[in-house]
Amino acid sequence: MTILSLLLAAVAFGLLGLATDAHHRRRFGCLPDPAQHGVLRYGGWLALVASVLPAILARAWIFGPILWAGAVMAGAGIAFLALNFLPPRVRAGGADSGRRRP
């Protein structure tokens, strides 16, 4: 249950990050349309709220909120590192196919 809470928090911050124009453009090469923007934000907040339940079930009401706060911080760190330091998707045959020109 602890890992589930951490995964939900990481997914939540990943979705919230992809809802921003800069991260979405870096990952997918285009801006999100308004419908996508809303779905990503709603999904992010939903996953963040859903991450509370596994933490409470894992450690009860005494240490569950503490576990959840730690999972939220770790999830934010994982999403930050993934969005900023993983290489962007390379499109096959696209302009940035990864080859350097002499």
Structural account:
With 102 residues, the protein is an all-alpha fold. Helix content is 75%, strand content 0%. The protein contains four helices and no strands. The protein has helices at 2-18, 21-28, 34-50, 52-85. Helix 1 packs antiparallel against helix 3 (34-50) and helix 1 (2-18) packs across helix 4 (52-85). The radius of gyration is 17 Å and the shape is elongated. The termini are far apart. The model is unreliable at 96-102 (pLDDT under 50).
Features of this protein?
mainly alpha; 0% strand; 4 helices; 102 residues; 75% helix; disordered C terminus; elongated
Helices and strands, in order, run as: HHHH
Report strand %.
under 5%
Main sheet properties: none
Low-confidence stretches: 96-102
Indicate the overall shape: elongated
Arithmetic mean of pLDDT: 87
Distance between the termini: 52 Å
Radius of gyration: 17 Å
